[in-house]
Amino acid sequence: MLKYGFVGPALLLLIALNIFPLGYNIWLSFTNYDLSGGDVKSVGTRNYREVFNEPRYAAAIRTTALFVAAAVLIELVLGYALALALRGEFLGKGFVLTVLLVPMMLSPAVMGLFWHLIFKGDYGIFNQTLGAAGLPEPQWLTDPGLKLAACVIVDVWMWTPFMMLISLAALNSIPRHIYEAAEIDRAGAWTVFRRITLPLSAPLLLLAVLLRTTDALKQFDYVMVLTGPNDAATQTLSALLYQTSFGSFRVGLGTAYGFVVLVAVIAVATLFTRYLDRLQRSR
Amino acid sequence: MKIVRMALIALYFAVATLPLAWLVITSIKHRDDVISTDARVVPGVEFRPTLRAYAELNEPVKGKNHSFLHFLLNSALIALASTLASVALGTSCAYGFSRFRIAGARDWLFFILSTRFLPPLAVVVPVLLMFREFDLTNTRLGLILLYTSFNLSLSVWLMKGFIDEIPRAYEEAALVDGYSRMQAFARIIVPQAAGGMAVTAVFCLISAWNELGFAMTLNNDDAAKTVPPYFQGMIGKIEGLPWPQIAAGALLYVVPIVVFTVLVRKHLLRGMTFGTIKA
Question: For the whole model, what pTM was predicted?
Answer without folding.
Answer: 0.89
